[in-house]
Design a protein that fits this description.
By secondary structure, the protein is α+β, with helices and mostly antiparallel strands. The chain has seven helices and 13 strands. β11 and β12 (256-259) form a beta hairpin. α3 crosses α6. The longest helix has 22 residues, at 183-204. It is globular, with a radius of gyration of 18 Å. The termini are far apart. Bound molecules: biotin. Biotin binds at residues 34-36, 58, 61-64, 67, 69, 71, 77-79, 121, 131-133, 148-150.
């Protein structure tokens, strides 16, 4: 007897990722509140490194800056736990690793070229196809990072756009590519790329390759942007990223401002 779609998906994913150096265990859910919350609820010790939580749909998906994340069936909703041995200064590079890995995996599978928007949105033609959420837990003995990836794969973007009131427009891979995306193939490709960048950072302690590649895939530099840091809005021109991944802007009064990770950026 043939298995259900879910068990076939799970079996294929487990088989594909059995060769992965990074993924040690997989939790698979047909439906869950949030893979990110589930990962956060697990006991945070070193054995959690490489745990992948993946769900077909999320009832209470979490986005950045307290937003909700619409996560219907057909999307790729996953969180991966990393318990890195590298310095705390490198922790935030995982957000760039996530966005780069997704953009490269999309390109590998569909040949679509995505662009990246700081800090970690993946865009196609200016519309958001994927968001990355990074939770860093500094309290446990070992620092843990939960890298959450929300990819609008086989979903209707109108459903997402009608469900949220946001400063961005969403798109989906199926709409941009014109064909169904195999969620197992794209998960495998994303994980392979995360693995590459993560172990590279671990081995070399250097983030140069990650930052250089990220910058090459972004159209932000030289453009005007407005950054909201939760209390104040800053407007000016985007100049560069510094070595820590902060955004460097020249504000309208010509002063230079470094914007750190959690702020929100919109472009004019
Ligand atoms: C963003 O706001 O751009 C980040 C969205 C991140 C969504 C993903 S979906 C998998 C994981 N679980 C969650 O609840 N959120 C992240």
């Amino acid at each position: 007897m043939e298995g259900s779609d879910e068990s076939v998906f799970e079996a294929r994913l487990t088989k594909m990722l059995s060769a992965s150096k990074l993924v040690k265990s997989i939790y698979y859910f047909e439906s869950i509140d949030s893979t990110q919350d589930y990962a956060n609820s697990l006991p945070h010790d070193k054995s959690l490194h490489g745990t992948l939580i993946i769900a077909k749909n999320q009832k209470m998906g979490k986005g950045r800056i307290g937003r909700s994340w619409i996560s219907p069936h057909g999307g790729l909703w996953m969180s991966i736990v990393l318990v890195p041995d590298f310095s705390i200064d490198n922790l935030l590079f995982t957000q760039f690793i996530g966005a780069l890995a997704v953009a490269e995996a999309i390109n590998e599978i569909t040949e679509i070229s995505c662009r990246l928007k700081w800090p970690n949105d993946v865009l196609i033609d200016g519309k958001k196809v994927c968001g990355i959420l990074v939770d860093v837990n500094l309290e446990s003995e070992k620092k843990t990072i939960i890298l959450g990836i929300g990819l609008n794969a086989n979903v209707e973007s109108s459903f997402i756009n009608n469900s949220i009131n946001c400063d961005f427009k969403a798109t989906s891979l199926i709409e941009e590519y014109g064909n169904d995306i195999d969620l197992v193939d794209i998960t495998d490709s994303i994980i392979n790329k995360i693995e590459y960048y993560y172990y590279n950072l671990l081995r070399t302690g250097k983030s140069t390759e990650i930052l250089d590649r990220w910058k090459q895939q972004s159209d932000m530099f030289g453009r005007r942007a407005v950054v909201y840091d939760g209390t104040q809005k800053f407007s000016g021109e985007v100049i560069d990223l510094d070595n820590n991944g902060s955004l460097i802007m020249r504000l309208d009064d010509s002063s230079i401002k470094k914007i750190i990770y959690f702020n929100n950026v919109s472009f004019s």
